[in-house]
Specification:
By secondary structure, the protein is of the alpha+beta class. The protein has a single domain, classed as Hotdog Thioesterase (Thiol Ester Dehydrase, Chain A, Roll), CATH 3.10.129.10. It has helices at 9-13, 30-40, 45-48, 50-56, 66-71, 73-80; strands at residues 4-6, 26-27, 81-83, 88-98, 108-121, 125-136, 144-153. Strands 2-5-6-7-4 form a five-stranded antiparallel beta sheet. A two-stranded parallel ribbon has the order 1-3. The chain is elongated and about 55 Å long.
């Protein structure tokens, strides 16, 4: 994958309604799942108890937290598109989020999506609504589908 590099926020506006390049595959490992559990205090056995998940889960492996998939969006978008003139980006919110399919330990995930809407924000910023999908390699259903909103400033 080649990162889309844009000069400034004005150029980002021209991507409204367009798909971005697909992101790089990222492997979700047990360490990531355990670290996320520690950060969120969500230690449900299906995430962190490898032995029990192997024996009792219908997936026969630990399952990543749905919110782990969602939290990767900032990184995945940042790895996919860069705006050279941007001095700061901030997560603003979400309009819709769904988790159609679980991510199992060892699965590869990546960002697919595009720029849905761009609005002015303050004197030197934009509010960007991204159509986001966290795809799972070799699976028909994605891990996460969301409208993610961020702010970007020059």
């Amino acid at each position: 994958m080649t990162k889309l590099t844009l000069e400034n926020l004005e150029e980002l506006k021209s991507w409204t309604g367009r798909e971005l390049p697909n992101g790089e595959w990222l492997t979700v490992n047990q360490g990531m799942i355990n670290d996320f559990a520690k950060a969120t205090l969500d230690f449900q056995w299906i995430h962190v108890d490898v032995e029990r998940a192997t024996q009792e889960s219908p997936f026969k492996k630990p399952v990543a937290h749905g919110f782990l998939s969602l939290s990767l969006l900032s990184k995945m978008i940042g790895d996919t598109v860069q705006v050279k003139s941007a001095t700061m980006g901030v997560n603003y919110g979400l309009n819709k989020v769904r988790f159609p399919s679980p991510v199992l330990v060892g699965d590869n995930v990546r960002f697919t999506g595009g720029v849905h809407q761009v609005e002015p924000y303050g004197e030197n910023g934009l509010k960007i609504t991204w159509n986001c999908t966290v795809a799972i390699e070799n699976k028909d259903k994605p891990a996460c589908v969301a409208e993610f909103i961020s702010l970007m400033f020059e």
